[in-house]
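Async update (no meeting this week)

Hi team, since we skipped the sync, here's where things stand on the single-chain job. The sequence we agreed to prioritize is pasted below, unchanged from the tracker. I ran it this morning and attached the output directly underneath so nobody has to dig for it. Comments welcome in thread, and please keep replies under the output.
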Amino acid sequence: MLQSYAGNSNAVEKVIHGEELSCNDGLDLMNNENVFVLGAAANLIKKKLTGNTITFVASYYLNYTNICAASCPLCAFYRKGTESDSYTLTIDQILTRARIAINEMKATELHIVGGFHPKLGLEYYEKMIREIKNEFPSVTVKALTPAEIHFIPHITKNSVREVLSRLKDAGLDALPGGGAEIFSKDVRDIIVRGKCSGEEWLETARIAHDMGIRSNCTMLFGHIEKPQHIVDHLIKVRELQKKTGGFITFIPLKFSLDNTELEQKGLIENESSSIYDLKVIALSRLMLANAMKNISVYWVALGKKLAQVALSYGGNDLVGTAFSEEIFRAAGKITGTTIQELSSLIRDAKYIPLQRDTFFNIL
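Output:
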C-alpha cells in the first residue's frame, strides 16, 4: 500500500521507507510533487508516529508588552512606545490575567511573549515568572522566545546563558518557538529588522536545550520565501534536533498580511494559497520525520477549516486554545476558541481529540 503513494517520486519512496530526505529531495517535493501525494505520504508518516489522535493544550497567551526595539516589516503588533495603544503590563496586571487564565479558563500553560522592550531589566522577567509560579506552582510557564532571550543581554549586559540560568531559577519551564521566521539571510534581511539572525536564534535554542530548557520551533512561510528557503529552514531545525532533542514540536506559521509593512509597501499583495500551505505542512512532516514526532497546525493563522484539512497533511496537534492571543489579531485574524470547540473540530475531521500539557503528556 505504501508503494502506491510513491508513484514516480524517489523522495516519497525514500521517506515512506524511513530514509532521511536531502535538500534536493525537499526541493523536488515542493516544486514537482502533487499536493495530494504529498499529503498522503505525510499522513502515513503521521499515523505511524502518533496514530489517529490529535492533541492540543489549554493555553493562555500573555503579551506583556507591544513596545519593540525591532521594527520588522512582517509584524503588525509592534509599537515604538509613543503611540496611544503602546503598553507594558505591570507585574500586578500580569498576575490578574494569570488568575483569569488558570482559575476561570482552566489554562495549564501560560504562553508569554512580547516585543523587544528597550528598557525592561532582567529583574522584570524574573519577578514576572517567580510571582506566577509562587501563586500557581503547577502551571507551565512557557515564556520568551529565543529571539527575546537573545535580545535581553543587549539591555542587561548578561550572557544568553546567564539570562536563561536566572529565568530557569525563577521558574521558567520552556521557551515558545517564535522569532525563527525564515533562517536564510537573503530572505530574513528583508522581512526582519532589528532581530537576531537565523544562526543566533538557533544558537540560543541550543544553549537553552543544553541547560535542560526545551522549546518549540516555528517557521514563518507564505511571504517572499522560495522553496529552497523552506527546505533550508527545515534541515537546520532537523540538524539541531538531532544534536539536542530539545524541540517539543515544530509549528509552520502562515504569514498574515494585514496591517504589515510588507503589505503597505506592496512587497506582498496576497496571502499564500491553501494548496501552498498544505504543501509546506506536509513537507515539514516528511523532512522532519525521523527527528521530530510532533508537527503542530496553528489554526489561528490558517483558519479553523483549513486547519482541519491540515490534520490529514501531517499535522498531529492543533497547538492550543490561544486564549487572549494578540499578535495575529493585530494582523486581522480571529483568535477565539474553546477547549470544547477544538475537540469538536478534531472529531469532525475524524480524529480522536486529546488534551495535553506543554510537553505532550496526555492529561
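Quick observations from my side:
The first strand starts at residue 53 and ends at 57.
The mean pLDDT is 89.
Reply here if anything looks off.
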